[in-house]
Structure prediction request, 167 residues.
Amino acid sequence: MVTYDPAWPARFDEERTALTSAIGDWVVGGIHHVGSTSVPGLESKPVIDILVGVQGLGASRPCFDRLRDLGYVYAPYRSDEMHWFCKPDPSRRTHHLHLVPVDSPRFREELAFRDYLRGHRDAAERYGALKRALAQEFRNDREAYTNAKAEFIQATVTRALDELGRA
Prediction:
């Protein structure tokens, strides 16, 4: 975990430009900066998370070669809900890329979580404190760290979607 870097949005913008050029034909729901690096002030692992809305998993497979040309490595993870890539390689990641169908719950939830944290500083601070504690507890177990955040994330997504329903 590192302190928020104000250069992260610019790093995302650079990557979005490259992705638009390479795979724009497959993008139907936008290219979004998500994850902790997308929330101003939030501590994070220095990895830019990118969500790309696609029509479907099968329909987006043909863009894999173009992503490989940009330095992305396909890593099958939760392959029933997304195509997941990392850059430059799984052992040293600077970017995560998620191709997610726009009609899926995951797509809506990723954006809702990000937007909620951006709009609710108190929730972002609680999330940051949780991440710091879990990073210490699960220093050498990435999967356990991710799983331990799940309850907070789901509760926040539920609140965010409830707010959107009232908007």
Remarks:
- The beta strands are 27-34, 48-54, 73-74, 83-89, 92-101.
